[in-house]
Amino acid sequence: xxxxxxxxxxxxxxxxxxxxxxxxxxxxxxxxxxxxxxxxxxxxxxxxxxxxxxxxxxxxxxxxxxxxxxxxxxxxxxxxxxxxxxxxxxxxxxxxxxxxxxxxxxxxxxxxxxxxxxxxxxxxxxxxxxxxxxxxxxxxxxxxxxxxxxxxxxxxxxxxxxxxxxxxxxxxxxxxxxxxxxxxxxxxxxxxxxxxxxxxxxxxxxxxxxxxxxxxxxxxxxxxxxxxxxxxxxxxxxxxxxxxxxxxxxxxxx
Length: 254
Description:
Number of domains: 1
Radius of gyration: 17 Å
Oligomer: single chain
Number of helices: 9
Structural class: mainly alpha
Strand content: under 5%
Low-confidence stretches: 129-133
Order of helices and strands: HHHHHHHHH
Helix content: over 70%
Largest sheet: none
């Protein structure tokens, strides 16, 4: 009996580590890993709130693991990142505090709704505009970053992708600049919502650590790939994530 329990625990940790590595690579490049990772963890039989806590802990690993490479690449707009931290952090606290109060059976439906919304925005190709030519665009941009913070704090499903789209559309950033700037801007909001979700969950500390460590390593790998191959690679990765998830949903339905 003891051997069986140990084996099950080992397999659970091993699977989470593989998932965290994949999440770190994908999220550090394009965001959107929660679109496939959250259903996978639900399939493991984990409670919905524990799934959200692990998903957010992966994001903690991503922002810490990818920050150095994006900083060295000089693609982070620190002025914009510091300003974006405020609405994103406030929104994150609101979103996380709200989601922990939702009954578990309702939370599952909310999560799956979020997955389909994430797929829609992953497939949408934005048309960048320059904030210099549209002064009001930046104000709208900060408002949408506040909404991104709420979304990220609550579900964190494709939250990084939404942030990239806002930075591209309303602040005239390239995909690489947007992803790099979001990694910096998301640091406080990620830690805030992670603290709220993990405190309210029953997830084992060991699983949280494994998710953090594996996502950190994945983010280190992914950020190097993103910087090396540039904005076109990031855009293709975003679309690729969406297509993979659509195929998964199709097979789930049949």
